[in-house]
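Interim report, section 4.2 (structural modelling).
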Amino acid sequence: MLFADLGARVIKVERPGMGDDSRTFGPFLNGRSVYFDFINRGKESIALDLKNDADRRCFEALVRKADVVVENFRPGTIERLGYSYERLKEINSRLILASCTGFGQTGPMSRERAYDTVIQGLSGIMSMTGFPEGPATRVGTSVADLTAGLYCFGAISSALFARDKTGIGSRVDISMFDAMITLLEHGVMEYVATGRPLGRLGNRHPYIAPFDTFQANDTSFVICAGDDELFVSLCKAIGKPELAFDELFLTNEKRTLNQALLKKTLETVFSEHDSSYWIERIGKAGVPCGAIQNISEAVEHPQVRARNMIVESGGLRMPGNPIKISGFADPKDRAVAPRLDADGLRIRREFGA
Amino acid sequence: MLFADLGARVIKVERPGMGDDSRTFGPFLNGRSVYFDFINRGKESIALDLKNDADRRCFEALVRKADVVVENFRPGTIERLGYSYERLKEINSRLILASCTGFGQTGPMSRERAYDTVIQGLSGIMSMTGFPEGPATRVGTSVADLTAGLYCFGAISSALFARDKTGIGSRVDISMFDAMITLLEHGVMEYVATGRPLGRLGNRHPYIAPFDTFQANDTSFVICAGDDELFVSLCKAIGKPELAFDELFLTNEKRTLNQALLKKTLETVFSEHDSSYWIERIGKAGVPCGAIQNISEAVEHPQVRARNMIVESGGLRMPGNPIKISGFADPKDRAVAPRLDADGLRIRREFGA
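Predicted structure of the assembly:
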């Protein structure tokens, strides 16, 4: 989808009959999978049976002219189909073959099946998400799927750039598990620095305070006072300038050490007004803060609108392209996701197969 | 860091005196910021005061030869320093100027300050993370920072590839808020399909069951039975083949509708053994499942080791590079993050400034 958004021609090769599994994933709208339509805009579709000789010739004709083949079979599957990287390279030496899998092409777990939550569990991110007194918590979106896809996009783009110098293609191997290890951030930092795993901290930052959610008299909101100066501004903005001179809160180190007391002190003040009152006051003082929005508030937000981050495709609203590059189009309307084999006949003719 | 990992020469331009703020971020080990060292491996450092004429000449000499300038000032700041994209383009028409900010270069919130948790709150991801009866929950890592960085990496790589065709550079504009909107997935799907925001679902999938965490007699573990076939395999593996024929659980739609009852039924079975027993049994049956590991278990995992996903830099262990491309080195040891201005003298000489 990202490549199609940037103007690449993307041909989705699906199995005949059912097509991509995700055509059957909910939610549905007017009989179409919203899930499928979200992530397949701007693509063409051809149904190919890679065990049928005529269809194999067509696939090979596509490979001959392609810059990139992306696949996410379990490791070993494309090899069994007779399309190892070595074989594809014989067909097209400039080809980039990118594989995006749960565990990668190598290692003891390489051939295990993986879904997003399995990887979230193994990666440690669930052990860091949630509250100290509560259970390990899944990130509320398929962050392992999505991050692996993002790495894959960047890796392919880099491989294309490299190919312009070397003249030959390459093999890209991205794994969801690898990708999640790189997202753990303070979790790994704390572990290598102290030998102890960092557990769940709720909504607060491990090393900065106040950098957390705070309860006002209606709902919670976010304050991120990342340094001493911002803390002084915060104290003034809420009418408690003396807090900034309290021995217990003088430095970020002290505030982090005494964060529970600081939070209680601040929430006593915040209980006097609702969150929108505090967000306006604190924001005006230049201290980063904000509401905890639900999805409808986020999607309808003026900044999201101004950035064209909700686009339309076949009458369906969906997230836009966050990659804004001068000279690349960023239209409001996007080509709709294809029906199965919608472009099959035309593609077969075009590639003479 | 990703570009340095792929072999690019990366020169970090820092303000004299303090350098990058993140040099002061905890945790610390042997007097060095682990935070800074994690994300600056393989870079060179030069301290430049962009308000000093000699230093400006040096900066411009760097720009003249650079492929890419990456900056994350608030919008308006580089323009005030006299280095708008238009000006930089005059110095080097092939330059790619990439800006990575909280809200992007345009829109009503463009100039607001943002930290990760502010963006998490605004984006809606916190409203989707956590349990229905519990509070909105921060993803336990700086997912907005990191995702924006990943989009920036991919966007720059794409812009470099495009430049090989057009001969001219471009302006890349990435925002944390935009990036997070693209991660909301089922949240936005459900909202556009039904008009209602999707709330917090705990650890379960909104449209697939069983796809959740389950309590064994010691701890919780993950099962992702993504289709009917996997559900049948699961029922057999746990010695309850009759469950697969229960009218209430016959299809994924029914299992999702009755997921609370299904979870209770499964957990009654799981209470008889510990999670490792069940993970082995269920995994052997080919059903995706796994432990909820803490950070030390994740970091020390054999698959992580086999994929070289923990590397060393200056004696410090840190996450490796998940971008595995044939022909690109993926060494165990990485060059250490630079001291402030460590390469300043040499760079000034080299660029004749």
